[in-house]
Amino acid sequence: MSSDKAQKLWTVNMIAFILLAVLFLTGLVNWLLLPRGYQAAGALLSLRHFLHDIHAWAGVLFIISMLVHWSLHWSYIQSNLKRYKRQ
To answer: How many domains in the chain?
Structure first.
């Protein structure tokens, strides 16, 4: 594997990990800490909506990072599919 490709993979993996951590934290805070429904008012309600938007956009960016990750590993994926297809 070339040094350039290894650097790209490391960068994509770090971005994906950070996005996954954002997804985890925003989902957990919205699920466990912030009040739902009629209990939420004022600043807590706007924080809940803000975190929901961050969660949604982080999800979209995470999917894109996974598509880039898979495209960088495409030759490895193809070789393993060919090997399992022969068996």
So the answer is: 1
**What are the pLDDT digits (tens) for 43-87?**
667 788 899 999 999 999 999 999 999 999 999 999 998 888 876
Interaxial angle between packed helices 74-86 and 43-72, expressed in degrees from 0 to 180 and rounded to the nearest 10? 60
Q: How far apart are CA 15 and CA 11, in angstroms?
A: 6
Contact status, residue 12 vs residue 66, Cβ threshold 8 Å:
no
Domain range for 18: 3-86
Please tell me the distance from the alpha carbon of residue 21 to that of residue 69, in angstroms, as a whole number.
Answer: 17
**CA atoms of 18 and 13, how far apart (whole Å):** 9
pTM: 0.81
Give pLDDT tens digits for 21-32: 999 999 999 899
Q: Which residues contact 40 (CB under 8 A, 6 or more apart)?
A: 34, 48
